[in-house]
Amino acid sequence: MAFDTSKRSSYFLITPMAAIFAVFLVIPLLTIVIVSFWDYDEYRILPDFILENYSYLLGSSVTWKIYLNTLKYAALTWVFTLSIGFTVAYFLAFHVRSLTWQIVLFMLCTIPFWTSNIIRMISWIPFLGRNGLLNSALINLGIVDQPLEFLLFSDFAVVLADVHLYTLFMVVPIFNSMMRIDRSLIEAARDAGASGFETLKSVIVPLSKPGIAIGSIFVITVVMGDFITVRLMSGGQSASVGLQISNEIGLLQYPAAAASAVVLLITVLLIVTGLLRLVDIRKEL
């Protein structure tokens, strides 16, 4: 009887969360999947069951180019955020001894998040523009004769803004993993004659893999679905899957946008599944 009461109490505890999960995640996803099979014309959405939205999407060479471009943004952003995030986390975890200073420096890393993403992106425009601060400085110093055109409204600007926006998503989980590393393991490696690089390669990096995987999931999933950064920082000269979906919604092509969203979701899930197979992140949960 006590067991039944405990079991019933467990159901009562999980019911609110399950309801929220169903209402705000499962039902919207099912709605998107259903709408992706509907038909449409210039003025109406027609409930139906057709495969033309998917056949047109997957059969178009433009779609594959857009996905390759999006994957390029995600890969480049991942490489740079991982490099910067790992370096910052390593410095905070192993070179800053005082807990107070760790907290202070970590809070400094969060300062960009005190403003919106849009403001942080727009702040790059006067810096990177043709007549911006960087080009003016380079010309005044005699390093270049003409303004560098690739700095703004280009793939470079998109990746730079993404790295600026999402590096903290890599710093936090890696720092958390590094703080859990038993310092006696590092001392043992040093006593065994391992150099600093060998200790990093054989002890710190393997034990930081769960944090690296979590940070990678955060960064890749956000960049894959992003469209504001691509629209603003490329000046409309580049495309991404998120921007394609946004344009389809703007044209009231909701079934086509839903089909694009489903394909994007499957692509991201495949990437996340691959990362989870490589690293067991349950140690961090």
Question: Quick one: how many beta strands?
Answer: 2
Query: What sort of overall outline do the alpha carbons produce when their principal axes are compared?
Result: globular
The gyration radius over C-alpha positions equals 24 Å
Can you list the strand order of the major beta sheet? 1-2
- Architecture, according to CATH? Orthogonal Bundle
Instruction: Indicate the CATH class.
Output: Mainly Alpha
Count of domains = 1
Arithmetic mean of pLDDT: 88
Measured between the Cα atoms of the first and last residue, the distance is 33 Å
Q: If helices are DSSP runs of H or I spanning 4 or more residues, what is the number of helices? A: 13
Protein name: ABC transporter permease
Subcellular location: Cell membrane
GO cellular component, one term: plasma membrane
Main location: membrane
Give an overview in words:
This is ABC transporter permease. One of its GO terms (biological process) is transmembrane transport. Keywords: Cell membrane, Membrane, Transmembrane, Transmembrane helix, Transport. InterPro entries: MetI-like, MetI-like_sf. It is a multi-pass membrane protein. By secondary structure, this protein is mostly helical. It has a single domain (60-283), classed as Orthogonal Bundle (MetI-like fold). Helices cover 74% and strands 1% of the residues. The protein has 13 helices and two strands, in the order H-E-E-H-H-H-H-H-H-H-H-H-H-H-H. It has helices at residues 2-35, 52-59, 61-94, 99-109, 117-122, 125-128, 133-140, 155-179, 183-191, 196-225, 228-233, 241-250, 254-278; strands at residues 39-40, 45-46. The chain has a two-stranded antiparallel sheet with strand order 1-2. Helix 8 (155-179) packs across helix 10 (196-225). The longest helix is centred in the first third of the chain and has 34 residues, at 2-35. The radius of gyration is 24 Å and the shape is globular. The model has no long low-confidence stretch (mean pLDDT 88).
